[in-house]
Amino acid sequence: MTAKLAPKKVVLAYSGGLDTSIILKWLQTEYGCEVVTFTADLGQGEELAPAKQKALLMGIKEENIHIVDVREEFVRDFVFPMFRANALYEGLYLLGTSIARPLISQHLVRIAQETGADAVAHGATGKGNDQVRFELSAAALDPAIKVIAPWRLWDLTSRTKLLEFAEANQIPIAKDKRGEAPFSVDANLLHTSSEGKVLENPAEEAPEFVYQRITPVEKAPDTPEYVEIGFERGDAVSINGEALSPATILARLNDLGGKHGVGLLDFVENRFVGMKSRGLYETPGGTILLEAHRGIEQITIDAGAGHLKDSIMPRYAELIYNGFWFSPEREALQALIDKTQEYVTGTVRVKLYKGSARTVARWSDYSLYSEKHVTFEEDAGAYDQKDAEGFIRLNALRLRLIAARNARVADKG
């Protein structure tokens, strides 16, 4: 970047860890710019106060250090809308990392606008999906903002060079950072993602020491546990009859699911940038929430609306995975999804046992389920079984015509 284009003030997505601390110093030395830090409390389970202390030690003014608790916003405005869609990327992945990136980007851009910064920066590498998610979101929110991705720019291309840079610039290096980390972890209130090193060979089972949140199934309780989740318009609002905030609901379901070994996924996915990668995802609360949401939808959504919603889900999930949360097509799909949730209100009972979360009961004042129509006993005239004959005859008409045509063609041949 030429001096003319070099930023004067940059808002950095800052965790306080070694990599983002190196990026902070690199921005200062490379551009001579003022750096503003943003650290998001997404429920990752780490103490965030040290991030402020490290930033102060590296010369960041206190007014330029932003640590924001976004847990409720994350679940309410990002996780819950996604779960109304029952979104799964490639049929399995609950998008725990993907859905956090637009929120982080939103705050980076907001802080940049509030502080007069002309650029934002992130620590995503040039091989991953996160660089795409951060930068597509930033472009949608502020088309004029510059985005700096040091991993695509600097010559610190090895762990040795990173450590040498840290030592030369008096950046503290934790003892466990001296050697190669056995795997890397990204965590938030929805999930924990572990990748790299011991997980890179998909032919090898992930070692148990990788697990962050979930009790191995073999060590989970031998007694099942039941949890009742209340929904209003597609969003969870209570657990066992107790009204709770969105973040509290997800945190409590994480505890329950983790204890029973629920929500572990060993997954080889297709990254947007073109390569395959293997990760171990732990999403205990999200797995329970998805099962319960499906359970309440079973009795409250009409078949036509439900099947339409299911048909667009893969596209919706792919948009989130690829970083298009702020795109008009995602918003259009969201409007359709939210329309289907108008009567998705009621309660679901889920049984947790040895790695499984299974709906065992569901009820709602808006239920479409009619016992008198499906009963094997006397239905008091609710359904005339003779009507099925005409229904089948009309639906079979085109099949008969196709069969007759094929027989004609075969006779001529």
TrEMBL record:
Matches recorded under PROSITE patterns: ARGININOSUCCIN_SYN_1, ARGININOSUCCIN_SYN_2
Keyword Membrane listed: no
Stretches assigned to the Arginosuccinate synthase-like N-terminal domain: 9-172
GO CC terms of this entry: cytoplasm
GO biological-process terms attached to the record: argininosuccinate metabolic process; L-arginine biosynthetic process; urea cycle
Gene3D superfamilies: Argininosuccinate synthetase, chain A, domain 2, HUPs, Single helix bin
Keywords: Amino-acid biosynthesis, Arginine biosynthesis, ATP-binding, Cytoplasm, Ligase, Nucleotide-binding
Keyword Lipid metabolism: no
Pathway(s) served: Amino-acid biosynthesis; L-arginine biosynthesis; L-arginine from L-ornithine and carbamoyl phosphate: step 2/3
GO molecular function: argininosuccinate synthase activity; ATP binding
Domain of life: Bacteria
Catalytic activity, EC: 6.3.4.5
Location of the protein in the cell: Cytoplasm
Quaternary structure and partners: Homotetramer.
Cited NCBIfam families: argG (TIGR00032), PRK00509.1 (NF001770)
Protein family (similarity comment): Belongs to the argininosuccinate synthase family. Type 1 subfamily.
Protein name (database record): Argininosuccinate synthase
Organism: Cypionkella aquatica
Taxonomic path: Bacteria, Pseudomonadati, Pseudomonadota, Alphaproteobacteria, Rhodobacterales
Gene name in the database record: argG
